[in-house]
Design goal:
This protein is 41% helix and 16% strand. It is of the alpha/beta class and 235 residues long. It has one domain: Alanine racemase (TIM Barrel). It is globular, with a radius of gyration of 17 Å. Bound molecules: pyridoxal-5'-phosphate (PLP). The site of pyridoxal-5'-phosphate (PLP) has 14 residues, from strand 8 and helix 9. Pyridoxal-5'-phosphate binds next to strand 8 and helix 9. Belongs to the pyridoxal phosphate-binding protein YggS/PROSC family.
Amino acid sequence: MDLVTRADEIAANLDAVRRRIAAACDAAGRAGDDVRLVVVTKFFPASDVRILAGLGVTDVGENRHQEAAAKAAECADLDVRWHFVGGLQSNKAAAVASYADVVESVDRAKLVPGLSRGAHERSHEIDVLLQVSLDPPGREGRAGADPDELDALAAAVETAGGLRLRGLMAVAPLGEDPAAAFARLARIRAQFLESRPCADVLSAGMSGDLEHAIRHGATHVRVGSAVLGPRPRIK
Ligand SMILES: *Cc1c(COP(=O)(O)O)cnc(C)c1O
């Protein structure tokens, strides 16, 4: 695709998303700089990351290790923070920690030793978010920890070296009103903050539901298609 056209397209989409975030903050009585935008670049090329960085995007997200590793390497000269937001296998955890600045999808203690080892090998602290499931228990393909598992998981992250527990992440379940799901998330988070007041990041909200997430306290929204366009169904 013509690079000038692509840059213009991304700039226009980014502007629209930034306006949505600002309007949602305003409607929620929150400061406009309260919410950070993470642009999810999965399926899109490193050249798009480069365009985004040129437009002031500071945070990008990826959900598959191989693709993320390659893209982060291609963009090593850019000043962007890499967020890993996808399902994570424990045998890949150390490798993900070799390029990710934030791992948002920590949902079981088994991932912690690998992440910690990767952080040590790199001599770089990794920010960690615990992914909490908003799905009903037993739902197929459920990702995320149960709310009542968060305390033990947080303790595992805190006692491992090289990891900094920063907060929670969640995805609204398919087929449920996101407002209801994020209201539930806000209650889970309030309880979590009672014992860990500094872990106050809340990553929630995507292209279709970021307004609901901001209303319910999101500090980070993860937006893909609204900025970069529709993803191909298969790569
Ligand atoms: C792909 C993805 C997003 C972005 O989704 P859009 O609907 O394209 O904004 C956000 N979070 C996670 C975990 C994702 O995998």
